[in-house]
Amino acid sequence: MAPRLGPLRRAFDSDIWYSFRRSRVTVLAAIVTAIFFLAALFAPWIAPHNPFDLSQISLLDSLLPPAWEAGGDPNYLLGTDDQGRDLLSTIMYGSRISLAVGFASVALAAALGITLGLVAGYVGGRTDSIIMRIADVQLTFPAILIALLIDGSVHAVIGNVPREKTAFWVLTLSIGLSFWVQYARTVRGSTLVERNKEYVQAARLIGIPPALIMLRHVLPNVMGPVLVIATINLALAIITEATLSFLGVGIPITQPSLGTLIRIGQDFLFSGEWWITIFPGAALAILVLAVNLLGDWLRDALNPKLR
């Protein structure tokens, strides 16, 4: 009998890994994404300066150009902003906030959407109709508008609590509740197919409760499209967070994300301090492009018709 392969060996021998390594664009996108993730994760240890430490910030160093420009300082490779914060360090910390909001909101949207999609597809009837009509109504509004409405409603309810303490969680809630519909509709469609298959019928006959059937049997078979949606929605969530922060309803200036940095730099763009908005904007564009490319590859890799 042939020896059983370990999980790692099976992964390296799989079609998905072969598809990944033969695509140079996908490998490059994965490397770029990994660099952003690692820079954000280890920002407190590898960033040249701590932009949140007031003892390391001096207004005398404000608006310094990049190190290769006339008047630049080698200690500030990409220059400084209007408060004297090192722009490279601020981008690292800003990416940390943007990615954290993106992951948290995608997790919330996926959990809510998958749950509602499973219930709608498996139970059917009036429950299915109610959930899908709610989804249809939400689809008539742009995601950014839904996020703005939720953000304003939550801050109206919580009162005068400082935005610094609530901005992260309010953003996560706002963006997460804006994206659940895609998961729900996709999971519902797959569940409608899976619930009529033999393994589900057999589980019903032996008396397994519906909740366990949905979690143990149906859910693993509908997760392929969900992974693709989650990857693409991560990029959309990062853009939405940046948009909200740019509009002034996201992360405050004291804890800048990439969107907040772009908004700050906009005030100085036409006065010659172009680096304050160009570098954060380029970082945001590169990160979103890399994640989108990974999402496109994952969609193709998990599609059996394209193998």
TrEMBL record:
Q: Where is the ABC transmembrane type-1 domain?
A: 95-295
Give the range the annotation lists for the signal sequence: none
Give the UniProt subcellular location, in the record's own words.
Answer: Cell membrane
Could you tell me the keywords of this UniProt record?
Answer: Cell membrane, Membrane, Transmembrane, Transmembrane helix, Transport
Q: Which organism is it from?
A: Tepidamorphus gemmatus
- List where the protein spans the membrane: 25-47, 97-125, 137-161, 167-187, 225-253, 274-295
The organism's superkingdom is given as: Bacteria
Pfam families reported for this sequence: BPD_transp_1, OppC_N
Name a single GO cellular component. Answer: plasma membrane
What is the recorded name of this protein? Peptide/nickel transport system permease protein
Family named by the database record? Belongs to the binding-protein-dependent transport system permease family.
Q: Does the keyword Transmembrane apply?
A: yes
One Gene Ontology term of the biological-process aspect is: transmembrane transport
Membrane association type: Multi-pass membrane protein
